[in-house]
Specification:
The chain is built from 12 helices and 12 strands. By secondary structure, the protein is an alpha+beta fold. The chain has one domain: DD-peptidase/beta-lactamase superfamily (Beta-lactamase), CATH 3.40.710.10. The strands form 3 sheets. An 8-stranded antiparallel beta sheet has the order 2-1-12-11-10-9-8-7, with helices on both faces. A two-stranded antiparallel sheet has the order 3-6. Strands 4-5 form a two-stranded antiparallel ribbon. Helix 4 crosses helix 8.
């Protein structure tokens, strides 16, 4: 496995596809219609198995699935468990926004404030890296840590330690000013999740479960696989269609460690379509606000979420990938529609997500 493959859980977010969204009435989907799209892809060897869900403007949820769940999985359906990769990042920034709403942190807080005093965080020209810099990929930190040297290349983040993260930060010199440029960074988002967990005094998994999963009723989204999730875990597949190892992301969990189901992903998508008076929903709304450009005229960055203007529609989205999975979530809050695509292979399906929002 090449080093490029290790980077999959973050690199996918930079992949943009040319899609036109109709300015007509929001779509109304049928299971049969979606199933036809899935059969075309799976039978054409463009994916091994897929589960797709949509939320229509009236709140109706439609889910369709097709393909091979891999050995051991019970079936391929709305309860199948997938690694969601970098979609984890918007859970991290949702927690950040929730903590801001509660007055526990501010976006302008230096990340060093929440790390041990012995950790040197890179700075440049008198400016320090803040939480919002990490959340918008404008910190100046690179995409990956250069001291990532896995013992098992099939599971590249399993043995990366907190000590290694701190050692990298102490030795790294920024090559450009903080805030000067968007550059997608798994390292930066992983550091953000780590810092928020330290601020809360608990593990990243416990924090995101407490602040997002439990309030929304998401029962099967976590890093650790319990007996139910292990039973429903579909097998990932690599580029050649062969079974791939699952990834166990340590230390930088906030960048891509979560596993989930279509049922839970639709709950999360629906929550992002709504406004509410509680800190979580206020935080979700704040996380969708554009914060910085990305260098593309049609694409901006919010807190974790990418926001793309497509023929007058504002599409909020993120995708993800690990060694054997590709995923996509997007929504149009104005039209109250959303789509989620989960696949158990490394063939991306971002274009299908956009197609479903036509």
């Amino acid at each position: 496995m090449t080093r490029l493959h290790w980077r999959a859980f973050g690199a996918i977010a930079a992949t943009l596809l040319t899609v036109s969204l109709s300015a007509q009435q929001a779509p109304r989907h049928t299971e049969a219609g979606i199933l036809g799209l899935l059969k075309e892809r799976v039978d054409g060897k463009r994916s091994v198995g897929m589960v797709v869900g949509v939320i229509d403007a009236d709140g109706r949820r439609v889910v369709a699935s097709y393909g091979d769940p891999g050995s051991g999985a019970m079936s391929l359906d709305r309860e199948s468990v997938f690694e969601i990769g970098s979609i984890t990042k918007v859970f991290t920034t949702t927690v950040l926004a929730d903590m801001v709403q509660r007055g526990e942190v501010t976006l302008s807080d230096p990340v060093a404030k929440f790390l041990p005093a012995t950790v040197r965080v890179p700075s440049r020209n008198g400016r320090v890296i803040t939480l919002v810099d990490l959340a918008t990929h404008t910190s100046g930190l690179p995409r990956l840590m250069t001291n990532l040297k896995p013992a098992d290349q099939r599971n590249p983040y399993a043995d990366y330690t907190v000590e290694q993260l701190y050692a990298f930060l102490r030795g790294y010199e920024l090559t450009r000013d903080i805030g000067a440029q968007y550059e997608y960074s798994n390292l930066g988002m992983g550091l953000l999740g780590h810092a928020l967990a330290l601020r809360a005094g608990k593990s990243y998994e416990a924090l995101v479960t407490e602040r997002v999963m439990k309030p929304l009723g998401m029962q099967h989204t976590s890093i650790a696989l319990d007996a139910w999730m292990r039973k429903h875990l579909v097998r990932g597949h690599d580029n050649s269609g062969q079974p791939a190892a699952n990834w166990d992301i340590r230390t930088v969990e906030g960048a891509g460690a979560l596993r989930s189901t279509m049922e839970d992903m639709l709950i999360f998508a629906a929550a992002n379509l709504k406004d509410g008076p509680d800190p979580l929903h206020k935080g979700m709304a704040a996380a969708q606000v554009v914060r910085a450009p990305t260098g593309r005229p049609d694409l901006s960055i919010a807190l974790g979420w990418h926001v793309r203007n497509v023929t007058g529609h504002s599409i909020v989205w993120h995708n993800g990938g690990t060694g054997g999975y590709r995923t996509w979530m997007g929504f149009d809050k104005n039209r109250k529609i959303a789509a989620v695509v989960l696949t158990n292979s490394t063939h991306g399906a971002d274009d299908l997500g956009y197609e479903l929002l036509k």
